[in-house]
Design brief:
Distance between the termini: 40 Å
Largest sheet: 2 strands, antiparallel
Keywords: Cell membrane, Membrane, Transmembrane, Transmembrane helix
Protein name: Cobalt transport protein
Shape: globular
Subcellular location: Membrane
Number of domains: 2
Order of helices and strands: HHHHEEHHHHH
Oligomer: single chain
Strand content: under 5%
Membrane topology: Multi-pass membrane protein
Number of strands: 2
Transmembrane segments: 71-95, 107-129, 240-260
Number of helices: 9
């Protein structure tokens, strides 16, 4: 059982029942707030908040943690440059590279910030259907006095992007199987062999995604799609309830705690 990034998990939970507009505002705000955490108390508060809501979502914690693999290369990049290129008290030295205590502290802070943002983004995608999220974006932009054309366009782009994620994931698996059938080996040691393997997958995937996007654009033009006057079979109304209020209160409390701390 695997839940890739961007895949909605259709189960019953208190988090799933919260209005998607409230989740969109609060979880994106908490993801941004993660980058402002400084002290251990800030990180403890943010991560306890995440694990509490992840538990209430009824999605196993391991699936949230598994999505951190998507940014592990960025995390390693941050750790390497912070440890060896931050001046301070020397811990050890490897050739011309000098590791410092200040660099290690900065690396831990930056990685925890990155992971916090990814976890809250994953919480949003696991508990909110893509179509309802797109409708939420449209509704919020219209409430902020954006024109209908801009609001509908942003909602449409987001909806199509979210729908393309599982499609491209399946296509990538098929490309890997096809390359293996041709004798390609994907478990090679060394940077350059792994880079060649990555190129062998990503280039066909990019070509395929462009082709699918072009086919979708042609199909929409043939049907006379007009994003400014689009209608929907399902109308999402803002259903404010006690759960939405508690989530927003929790978001405000988080901002006050991190900023004042």
């Amino acid at each position: 059982m695997n839940f890739p990034i961007g895949r909605y998990v259709p189960i019953n939970s208190p988090i799933h029942e919260i209005d998607p507009r409230a989740k969109l505002i609060v979880y994106i705000s908490l993801a941004i707030l993660s980058f402002f955490c400084q002290s251990p108390a800030d990180f403890m508060f943010i991560y306890l908040l995440f694990f509490l809501q992840a538990y209430l979502s009824n999605v196993p914690i391991k699936f949230y943690l598994r999505n951190l693999k998507s940014v592990y290369l960025i995390a390693l990049f941050i750790v390497f440059f912070q440890i060896f290129f931050t001046p301070g008290k020397v811990i050890f030295q490897i050739g011309s590279l000098i590791a410092t205590i200040e660099g290690m502290k900065n690396a831990v802070v930056l990685v925890l910030r990155l992971f916090g943002a990814v976890l809250f983004s994953t919480l949003l995608s696991f508990t909110t259907a893509p179509l309802r999220m797109a409708h939420s974006i449209e509704d919020l932009m219209l409430r902020l006095k954006f024109s209908q054309r801009i609001a509908r366009s942003v909602g449409l782009i987001f909806s199509i992007s979210m729908r393309f994620i599982p499609i491209l994931s399946k296509e990538a698996e098929q490309i890997v199987l096809a390359q293996r059938a041709r004798g390609a080996k994907f478990k090679k040691n060394g940077l350059f062999p792994e880079l060649r393997t990555f190129i062998a997958i990503i280039v066909p995937l990019i070509v395929l995604s462009i082709k699918k996007a072009d086919e979708l654009a042609i199909a929409m033009q043939v049907r006379g799609f007009d994003r400014a006057h689009k209608t929907s079979v399902r109308q999402d109304y803002f259903q404010w309830n006690i759960k939405s209020s508690l989530l927003c209160f929790m978001g405000v409390l988080s901002f006050l705690f991190v900023i004042l701390n």
